[in-house]
Design a protein that fits this description.
This protein is an alpha+beta fold and 370 residues long. Helix content is 62%, strand content 13%. The protein contains eleven helices and seven strands. Strand 6 and strand 7 form a beta hairpin.
Length: 370
């Protein structure tokens, strides 16, 4: 009996020890788990910071280089350059250095190209007299020979002499366009400002343009507002712009109608001036403007062609040059002259329907846009 009691006591003691051991084991596991979690969190935080900080620095430096074009900036190097982050830092620094070199080379090339272009423009501008004088002499002598041949009855010579005159005048027009654009690019444009009656300007332009419009059997209509008053500007340059537009309309219109409309306004629509060189100055400008609109019923242009018509030596497309001829400088010259006079030019066109060119110029030109 006593033996059974002892055995039971030992069993109970063993059971208590077992439960105690299990409790200790659970506590050890729990502490180990908590320790692992804390160590894992600390390790993740340290590792994340070690990765995130260098990457944030790289992004900041890259943003500065992109915004300020400061290629002297470099990403700070890490102590251990053999890690992936260290290799990335080195590679990005090398990339910034190469971009800096390429940018410097491009800048030098741009400066050289601009200098060469200015030299070309200055040369052509200075060649104006040398190119025009002999050509005018050729045209003049051919006209004299034409008159003498006509008086003497040498009618067989007349067609050839007329071809010489036509070719000479055409070449003179082309040379004049090239010299004009060269003078503008070289900054050799001088404004001779004067007061003149706008209606008289319109009458002179219409008288000159009428033979051009009639050549392709077109009708020229003029619509002017009452009391256009006077204008203070460079009369020859304003006339040149209007004649360029009317000549252009006459060239690309056949058996149609060309309309010249003139009015005086106090405000220019934003759509007209969005691509104008002096657009930012119009916001504060308080002045009156003269608006000249040249509308035709010719071949018109699509949106892609309209994008290129004001570029020098470029017409709407290659077939236009073959079919209608010309240097492609008339509209480029007109646009730049308008901007020099403190105004601008706008075009709206629809293929197969026709085009409308709008020129607006200050009533009083100050010459500040030269």
């Amino acid at each position: 009996m006593r033996l059974a009691v002892n055995f039971r006591d030992r069993a109970d003691l063993a059971l208590v020890e077992l439960q105690t051991g299990q409790s200790i084991a659970r506590n050890i596991i729990l502490i180990s788990l908590l320790t692992a979690i804390v160590l894992g969190w600390l390790l993740a935080k340290y590792t994340g910071k070690a990765i995130a900080d260098p990457i944030e620095k790289m992004i900041d430096i890259a943003d500065q280089v992109g915004e300020d074009s400061d290629f002297a900036l470099r990403i700070p190097l890490m102590e251990d350059q053999h890690t992936e982050i260290g290799k990335l830092t080195t590679t990005l620094n090398q990339l910034i250095k190469r971009v800096a070199q390429y940018t410097e080379e491009l800048q030098k090339a741009k400066i050289a190209a601009e200098a060469a272009n200015r030299s070309k423009s200055v040369f052509l501008a200075n060649m104006s007299h040398e190119l025009r004088t002999p050509l005018n002499a050729i045209i003049g002598y051919s006209e004299m020979l034409h008159e003498e041949s006509k008086d003497l009855g040498y009618d067989d010579f007349l067609p050839d002499l007329e071809r010489i005159q036509t070719a000479g005048k055409h070449l003179l027009d082309m040379i004049s366009d090239i010299l004009d654009i060269s003078k503008i690019e070289a900054g050799h444009v001088t404004l001779y400002l004067e007061d003149f009656a706008v209606q008289q300007l319109i009458d002179d332009v219409v008288a000159t343009a009428t033979p051009l419009t009639e050549k392709n059997h077109n009708a020229l209509k003029v619509k002017t507002a009452k009391d256009l008053g006077t204008m203070y500007a460079d009369l020859p340059k304003v006339r040149q712009v209007l004649l360029n537009l009317l000549s252009n309309a006459s060239k690309f219109t056949n058996k149609g109608t060309i309309t010249l409309q003139v009015q005086r306004v106090t405000k220019i629509p934003n759509e007209w001036k969005k691509d104008t060189l002096n657009a930012e100055k119009f916001a504060s400008a308080k002045t009156q403007y003269l608006v000249f609109q040249v509308k035709d019923t010719g071949i018109g242009m699509n949106k892609e062609q309209v994008k290129h018509i004001f570029k020098a030596f470029i017409q709407a497309d290659a077939s236009t040059t073959k079919r209608f001829g010309g240097t492609g400088l008339g509209l480029a010259i007109s646009q730049r002259l308008c901007e020099i006079l403190g105004g601008g030019i706008y075009v709206k066109s629809r293929e197969g329907v026709g085009s409308t060119f709008v020129v607006w110029l200050p009533v009083h030109v100050s010459g500040q846009y030269l």
